[in-house]
C-alpha cells in the first residue's frame, strides 16, 4: 500500500513537471478561498501535483467549511481584513498563494475594511477588481508571498476551441456566438461585465454587478427560449485573479433560463468539474462552444 502511494505521488510529480515545467512545485501552498467549487478544484489539483501542505485563508459566510477536509489548515477571516490575511499567509510559511473563488456582491457592499485595507483603498485612483486585487498582490509580495495565476494546476480544465459539449451549432447560433463574443469583449473592456445574452443579433442582457448566472436569467426571461450566452475574459486580464469560470451551476442556470448555447472564450475560461459540466450539457442538449477572436470575426 505504501509502495502504491509512493508510485502515485511520483506519477503526480512527473505529470506536474510536464504540465508546469517553469514552476517549481511548492511544498506549501496558500489558497485565498472564496465561495463555490473553485477552491475545492484548486486544492485537489495542487495536491495531485505534489504540494505537501495546503493552507487556506477562508472568509466567513463565503468559503465552504467542508474545504477543511481537503487541506491541512483553514483559518477564518472577515471580508475586508487585509491585515489579518497578510499576517496569516506570512505566518503559514508559504511563499506562494492562489486566489480561488468569488465573493458575493452583497458582501462587497457590506465591507468593513481594516486599517491596512483602508490605506490600500486610499492609494487607488480607480477602485475596480483589477486595481484592488493588483494592490493586494503587491501587499502579499511585500510579505514575501507570490500570487500565482488563478489557473495554476488547472490548465487542463481551460476551455478548448470549438464544440465542447452538446449538439453542433446552427448557422444562426454560430453567428450569435460571434456577435456575442465581440459585444462581451467591448463591455469587459469598459469594465461593465464579461457576459452577454443575445438572440437573433439582438443584445438581451449585459452582465453588470449581479454576476453571470443572474445575467443569464435576465436574458433568458426576455428571450423566452433558445438564446445564446457568451462569457469572455477582459482584454489584458491579470490571470492571478478574476479568471472567467463556468461550472455545473452555470449549466443549471442556462437550463432554467432555456439558453440553447453557452459560448466561452477558449484558452481563457476555466471549466470547473468539467466531466459533470459536459454530462449536464449533453443531457439537456445545451451546446458549450469555445470561442476565439478568429472564429468570432473580431478584428485584431
What does this structure look like?
With 300 residues, this protein is α/β, with parallel strands linked by helices. The chain folds into 2 domains: 2-147, Rossmann fold, CATH 3.40.50; 158-296, Cytidine Deaminase, domain 2, CATH 3.40.140. Helix content is 41%, strand content 20%. The protein has helices at 2-19, 38-49, 82-91, 105-109, 115-123, 129-142, 171-189, 212-223, 248-256, 274-284, 293-296; strands at 28-33, 53-59, 73-77, 96-100, 146-147, 162-165, 195-199, 202-206, 227-231, 245-246, 259-265, 270-271, 287-291. The strands form 3 sheets. Strands 6-13-11-9-7-8 form a 6-stranded mixed sheet. It is globular, with a radius of gyration of 20 Å. Mean pLDDT is 87; it is low at 1-21.
Amino acid at each position: 500500500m505504501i509502495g502504491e502511494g509512493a508510485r502515485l505521488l511520483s506519477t503526480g510529480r512527473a505529470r506536474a513537471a510536464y504540465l508546469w515545467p517553469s514552476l517549481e512545485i511548492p511544498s506549501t501552498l496558500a489558497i485565498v478561498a472564496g465561495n463555490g467549487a473553485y477552491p475545492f478544484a484548486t486544492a485537489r489539483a495542487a495536491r495531485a501535483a505534489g504540494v505537501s501542505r495546503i493552507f487556506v485563508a477562508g472568509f466567513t459566510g463565503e468559503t465552504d467549511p467542508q474545504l477543511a477536509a481537503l487541506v491541512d489548515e483553514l483559518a477564518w477571516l472577515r471580508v475586508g481584513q487585509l491585515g489579518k490575511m497578510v499576517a496569516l499567509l506570512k505566518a503559514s510559511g508559504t511563499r506562494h498563494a492562489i486566489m480561488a473563488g468569488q465573493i458575493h456582491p452583497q458582501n462587497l457592499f457590506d465591507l468593513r475594511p481594516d486599517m491596512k485595507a483602508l490605506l490600500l483603498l486610499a492609494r487607488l485612483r480607480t477602485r475596480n477588481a483589477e486595481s484592488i486585487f493588483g494592490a493586494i498582490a503587491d501587499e502579499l509580495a511585500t510579505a514575501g508571498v507570490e500570487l500565482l495565476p488563478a489557473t495554476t494546476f488547472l490548465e487542463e480544465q481551460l476551455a478548448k476551441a470549438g464544440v465542447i459539449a452538446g449538439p453542433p451549432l446552427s448557422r444562426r447560433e454560430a453567428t450569435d456566438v460571434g456577435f456575442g463574443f465581440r459585444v462581451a469583449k467591448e463591455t469587459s473592456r469598459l469594465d461593465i461585465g464579461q457576459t452577454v445574452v443575445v438572440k437573433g443579433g439582438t443584445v438581451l442582457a449585459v452582465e453588470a454587478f449581479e454576476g453571470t448566472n443572474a445575467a443569464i436569467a435576465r436574458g433568458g426571461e426576455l428571450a423566452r427560449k433558445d438564446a445564446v450566452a457568451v462569457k469572455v475574459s477582459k482584454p489584458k486580464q491579470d490571470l492571478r485573479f478574476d479568471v472567467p469560470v463556468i461550472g455545473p451551476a452555470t449549466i443549471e442556470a442556462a437550463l432554467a433560463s432555456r439558453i440553447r448555447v453557452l459560448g466561452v472564450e477558449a484558452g481563457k475560461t476555466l471549466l470547473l468539474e468539467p466531466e459533470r459540466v459536459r454530462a449536464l450539457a449533453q443531457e439537456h442538449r445545451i451546446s458549450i462552444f469555445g470561442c476565439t477572436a478568429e472564429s468570432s470575426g473580431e478584428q485584431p
